[in-house]
Amino acid sequence: MNEYKDPLEERENLDEIELKVAESRNFFKSLFSSENFSAQKATTFIPFFVFMATLGIVYIANRHLAEDNVRKIDAVGREVKVLSWEYKTLKADLMQRSTQTEVAKRVDTLGLKELVEPPKKLIVETDK
């Protein structure tokens, strides 16, 4: 639905906007004018500016510490992954080396041979 807008209302809206823009310009002019900005007023704001500067420094230092912690956590995470891979590799290698055939191959070089027949049980009779 198309409504008819009153040109008088539009003009009033434009006047209000222009008035707000003029007020904001006057605010900045009055803020930095010499009558509002004196040495005495400036000295009353020094503690506030020092406080704000200190907060800024603390904020920056906190950010640097947080980033350092994130980097350290990342590095430890990568190291854990590498050690986990190494553990799994060594475990698999040990499992492979401890099989009967691998042990037989390694012991053969020492002159020991694998038993082909089952072991015999010796019974010793003692006198009572």
Q: How would you explain this protein's 3D organization?
A:
The mean pLDDT is 83. The chain is mostly helical and 128 residues long. It is built from 3 helices and no strands.
Structural class: mainly alpha
Shape: elongated
What order do the SSEs take from the amino end to the carboxyl end, as H and E? HHH
What integer is the average pLDDT? 83
Largest sheet: none
Number of helices: 3
Number of domains: 1
How helical, in percent, are the residues? Answer: over 70%
Any descriptors?
mainly alpha; 0% strand; 73% helix; elongated; 128 residues
Protein topology:
Layout: H1 7-31, H2 39-97, H3 100-108
Question: Quick gist of this model?
Answer:
With 128 residues, the protein is mostly helical. The protein is built from three helices and no strands.
